[in-house]
Automatic annotation (TrEMBL):
Pfam families: DDE_Tnp_1_3. The lineage of its organism: Bacteria, Pseudomonadati, Bacteroidota, Cytophagia, Cytophagales. It comes from the Bacteria. This is Transposase DDE domain-containing protein. Coiled coil: none annotated.
Length: 103
């Protein structure tokens, strides 16, 4: 966890029986933890159906072409898993959803 914190990344996990009890999830962390199944489904589609995880490319150009082809194929799928981003409150009490291209 310390290595992630140095990179300003936060690992969100469920609290287990052997974990420290003083660890409290913030509201956005709890929101994304509830939607973890959908997030993992999206990664599963990218890895298994569109073959993005293949790691033995002979050149960086081939890697990028394969990655872009997989992402373009993902945009043509009829049903893709999606969740609404957690609403972020601004100073003037407006609620803004950070969301891109929802089908």
């Amino acid at each position: 966890k310390e290595e992630f914190a140095e990179r300003n990344l936060h690992l969100i996990t469920k609290l287990r029986a052997n974990m420290k009890k003083n660890q409290v999830l913030t509201e956005p962390q709890a929101y994304y933890l509830r939607h973890r199944g959908l997030i993992e489904t999206a990664f599963d589609v990218l890895k298994n159906q569109l073959n993005i995880e293949h790691s033995r490319h002979r050149s960086p150009k081939n890697f990028l072409i394969n990655l872009l082809a997989g992402l373009i194929a993902y945009t043509f799928l009829e049903k893709t898993p999606n969740i609404k981003a957690y609403p972020q409150k601004l100073e003037d009490k407006q609620i803004v959803f950070i969301q891109e291209n929802v089908k």
